[in-house]
Amino acid sequence: MNGLLGARCVLFCGVLVLGGCASFEESGLPGSAASMARNQIMLVRKSPPSFGFSRLQAHVRAHPELAGFLRARALPDFLAETSDESRTYFILYFLQKKEAFAFRTEPEDNSSLEASGPYPITEGEQQTLEDFRAQAKE
């Protein structure tokens, strides 16, 4: 009996810890993934997975409608992310098509996502992002 109770307690504590980690990573608190992504442009690479890919997956979990958007277009090359007290903003850059799409959460409902675009990527942006990608391959 004691062994079964102990196992249940360990399992329950493990679930609490894992659940706490998931919410911490999106909390924006210092050291969380969300805080490290703030005001960053990140390479999105599936294999090996980049930090930008992990952040994009976090946005897909928070906004399932984003998965359909990505299925229709493929993975972006870069993700830029920032936030303020009430909203999260991010931009997906698709270098081959030279276009970008902007997204933001609603201030009253962070689970709701607004999208706009496509916007053309300027030659300067294109060059900067190509340079970032080249540095990532080094």
Describe the structure.
The protein is of the alpha+beta class and 138 residues long. The protein has one domain. Helices cover 47% and strands 23% of the residues. The protein has a five-stranded antiparallel β-sheet with strand order 1-2-3-4-5. The chain is globular. The chain starts with a helix and ends with a helix.
Give a quick rundown of the structure.
This protein is α+β, with helices and mostly antiparallel strands and 138 residues long. 47% of the residues lie in helices and 23% in strands.
Notable features of this structure?
5 strands; alpha+beta; 138 residues
List the helices and strands and how they pair.
Elements: H1 2-25, H2 33-37, E1 40-43, H3 51-62, H4 65-73, E2 78-83, E3 88-94, E4 99-105, E5 113-120, H5 123-137
Antiparallel strand pairs: 1-2, 2-3, 3-4, 4-5
How much helicity do the residues have? Answer: 40-55%
Instruction: Give the tally of structural domains.
Output: 1
Order of helices and strands: HHEHHEEEEH
Largest sheet: 5 strands, antiparallel
Class from secondary-structure proportions: alpha+beta
Query: What is the residue-mean pLDDT, rounded to a whole number?
Result: 79
- General shape: globular
Backbone CA Rg: 18 Å
Query: What is the end-to-end distance?
Result: 57 Å
Strand content is 15-25%
